[in-house]
Amino acid sequence: MSIRSEFNENRRGWIVFISVVFITITRAGFYYSFGIIVAKLTEEFNESVALTSWVGIGAIAITNTFSFVPTLVIRRLGRCGYRVCGIVGTVLEGIGLFSTSCMQKVPHMFFTYTILFGVGSCFVNMASNLIVTAFFPRGHKRHVFATTSVYCGYAIASLIYNPLTNTVVEGLSWRVAFQAQATLVILVGVAGSWTFVPNNEDKESKPLNADQHFNHTTDVETSTKQQQHYRHHQEQQQQHQQQPHENLQQDESNSMKSNARAFLKLDVVCWLVAAYFNAISYFTPFFILPHYMKKKNLTTFNISLIMMMLSLSECLIYLVTSLPGDLLAGKLIYVHITASSLLCLLNYLWSLLDANYGMILALAMSEGLLIALNCVYVYACSAEVTDINIEIAWSVTNIFSGFGVITAPLFSGFIYDLTLSYYGVFFMMSSVTLVSSILYCSIPLIKSCGNNNNNKNNKNMDNNNNSNYGYHDINNDSTDNDYYNNNDAVSEKRRRWLCWL
């Protein structure tokens, strides 16, 4: 199938996909360039690196931790929930950015940027992810491609915003950077969120009423078969409407209980804890590297170039890995195992190899490559590991990622403030990725052990059932023969079925 025919087949879905990518670029711009602003704020307000980093990290933490709230809102509002969450979140983002540009103290930014911008980003983030899943559900031939390609927006945002933010902050001020970002977020966010309306499938599933049903016939008198079909359809509809409300509530409660039990399984617990450590290793480099390179006496241009190359390598990996993603469906966990193991080794060797500008550039590009590989399939893999609805799986995974983002300053800023060295910070990052790689490795092992136990139990049950059926056939042989002789009209298929019983 050609690209053009595939686009025409799901035109609205691809338009929404493009909108989500542009919204992600503008929304996540300050996520990755906030390290440049941290360096400026620490100089102007004489605040610690840990406290200033918490302003930016806290917004990311709120975006992930409270992701279940917009999920519930979207489920409650239905089709219009995606658009409402997108537009409301965009407005909150704009208000938070504008008000942050007027703050005179760093602690005040916890309310304007961390809370307001973080809550708005939470609503926009979940509306963007879930609307993509609505057009490319699990099982769709482009599901993995669509859900992973959205992450290119984060890498492109880092690629564009790092040099752009550095230029604006150095040439004008950090306040102008916030104001320009607020304007761009509102324009792109409102326009893109307006497309967040899934396909209306109600018309296809809604039963025809009497006028619609009979107007399609050309004969004046309706045939008896059509009348019977219509009456049968109406009876089914009435039976469906008269279904007790208690049964619906019971089904919902059973679904909630089954989902809760799913998150108590050992492999799912390993996945959620790994998501916690994975979030620490993902966001920490973007906050510590600008200040780290400043301590290495690198120029502002070189710092901006290194951050840009890190983002470029990350973006390229997102693009390259999204293409074969659908071929790796069911085996995405092994990508996480490989990436986290290599990332552990890289962070351990960082402080031993950062002798000059060229080595720091190579290390930064390798870091961007591996953190992209470690995160590109998180969205699709969350449903594969948990085996439940992707909305619920992604929301709970985001909650644990949010906790990881919240504690990231504890493992980076506080370690640096205590030791005044980044050697301990990189060693911490190596330890974190080591733990996550061990947890990722345990997931397929636990699943394989569970499958082996299930196969053994099924074999034992089959053997017991076969022995019981044989005993039943011996005792009831004569009875079955009398029954078959008296019922010649019974079909051969039914006779074989009864013999098996």
Can you give a write-up of this model?
The protein has about 500 residues and is mainly α. The protein is about 80% helix and about 0% strand. The protein contains 24 helices and no strands. It is a multi-pass membrane protein. GO terms for molecular function: transmembrane transporter activity. Its main location: membrane.
Helix share of residues? over 70%
Q: What fraction of residues sit in β-strands?
A: under 5%
Report the radius of gyration as a whole number of Å: 29 Å
Largest sheet: none
Shape estimate: globular
Order of helices and strands: HHHHHHHHHHHHHHHHHHHHHHHH
The tally of structural domains comes to: 1
Based on the structure given, which CATH architecture is correct? Answer: Up-down Bundle
Q: What's the pLDDT, averaged over the residues?
A: 74
DSSP E strands, number: 0
CATH topology: Growth Hormone, Chain: A
Q: Compute the separation of the termini in Å.
A: 49 Å
Low-confidence parts, pLDDT < 50 over ≥5 residues? 201-227, 244-249, 471-491, 497-501
Structural class: mainly alpha
CATH class: Mainly Alpha
GO cellular component, one term: plasma membrane
Biased composition (Low complexity): 236-247
GO molecular function, one term: transmembrane transporter activity
Pfam family, one: MFS_1
